[in-house]
Amino acid sequence: xxxxxxxxxxxxxxxxxxxxxxxxxxxxxxxxxxxxxxxxxxxxxxxxxxxxxxxxxxxxxxxxxxxxxxxxxxxxxxxxxxxxxxxxxxxxxxxxxxxxxxxxxxxxxxxxxxxxxxxxxxxxxxxxxxxxxxxxx
Length: 137
Hints:
By secondary structure, the protein is α+β, with helices and mostly antiparallel strands. It contains six helices and eight strands.
């Protein structure tokens, strides 16, 4: 890929992802806060609904609360996964998503499809975010 094209593509992807967290935080940490929130790359503050955090806490064994980093990214990349397919990465993240979608979780990543993405976003609107990526040759 030409260097100029790569820079332009990278700039576009960064623009699409400006809503992502500066730093993810653990479920354990967020449950201890009165007003659980994270700072976003665009400078905004994103608050998590307490009911969602408590729902996640019930879906995951307590010893894994520190391993679940929020928000959970729903990674979209049509050139890597195919149109309508998303990837969830991380062991704790996969366990939670699999339990919500009544799927099996085997490993560190889980692929989900458009109807499941809708269900996941409906169930966890403040603790999930879309992340856009692309394959670079």
